[in-house]
Amino acid sequence: MRREAWLILGMGAVVIVITASLLYTIYLFSQTQHDQDDADRTAEFEGTLPVEATADPGGEQLYARSCVACHRESGRGRAGAFPPLAGHLPSLYAREGGTDYLIDVVLYGLSGDIEVDGETYRGFMAPMAHLDDGDVAEVLNYSLQAWGNAYQLPEDFTAIEAEDVADRRDQGLAPGDVRDKRKELFEAP
Ligand code: HEC
Q1: Which residues contact 92 (CB under 8 A, 6 or more apart)?
Q2: Rounded Cα gap, residues 158 and 160, in angstroms
């Protein structure tokens, strides 16, 4: 009787191990599939870049260093906490004053309620004025074109230049002021 109990227990353990490894394999497979989708998308996207600026890997590195912690590698941020840049930045760029606004967010930060894709964010993004003019331009150009954003840019898109960033310095804006500028951005026609 005791032996049988051990046998049942042993078989139970084997079944559990097999089920777990099966589930893990399925998980790994779905992850690979996901990565593959991203790779396909990137390959497709690299072939049709409207602007050469993205060929510069500097922007990607800057993004990885300064932005990825919140806006994530996918550029999708985290709903309710960090707004997405993917599928979103081109719509800001396209607005009157959009370039200036994007530069201001990086130089002066942003705080206060904003709404993106029906989701409200009551967050705070710290100013990053320590980045030099060229780096601010580059990281924004990268974010404007990565993740398929390039497809959504207006045809007359011109890459942001270091001089554009220099022009926005020394305004002494607070993160809340930048939020007011965002409001104006959406009120303008
Ligand atoms: C520590 C987290 C964090 C980091 C790092 C960060 N951001 Fe943000 N970002 C936020 C948050 C939070 C908001 C929204 C703030 C709010 O709700 O007012 C935001 C908002 C923005 C917006 C405005 C979006 C809109 O719809 O107006 C842009 C543009 C942006 N970030 C770009 C960047 C870039 C580019 C970098 C890197 C240079 C970066 N962020 C780094 C947290 C971060």
Answers
A1: 98, 101, 102, 185
A2: 6
**Parallel, antiparallel or unpaired: strands 119-125 and 110-116:** antiparallel
Kindly report the backbone phi and psi dihedral angles of residue 122, in degrees, each rounded to the nearest multiple of 5, phi listed first. Answer: -115, 65
Give the C-alpha separation, 153 to 93, whole Å: 8
Place of tokens 């227990």: 9
- Give me the DSSP letters along 113-142: EEEETTEEEEEEE---TTS-HHHHHHHHHH
Identify the residue whose C-alpha is closest to ligand 1 atom 5.
67
pLDDT tens string 65-116: 999 999 999 999 999 999 999 999 999 999 999 999 999 999 999 999 999 9
Q: Which residues form the pocket of ligand 1, taking CB atoms under 6 Å from any ligand atom?
A: 66-67, 69-71, 82-83, 85, 92, 102, 105-106, 110-112, 114, 116, 121-125, 128, 139-140, 143, 179, 182
The best mutation among 71, 138, 140, 142 to test binding of ligand 1, ranked by most ligand atoms within 8 Å of the C-beta, falls on: 71
* DSSP-based three-state secondary structure for 49: coil
Tell me the per-residue pLDDT of 12-23, one tens digit each, with 9 for 90 and over.
Answer: 888 888 888 888
Phi then psi for residue 18, to 5 deg, are: -65, -45
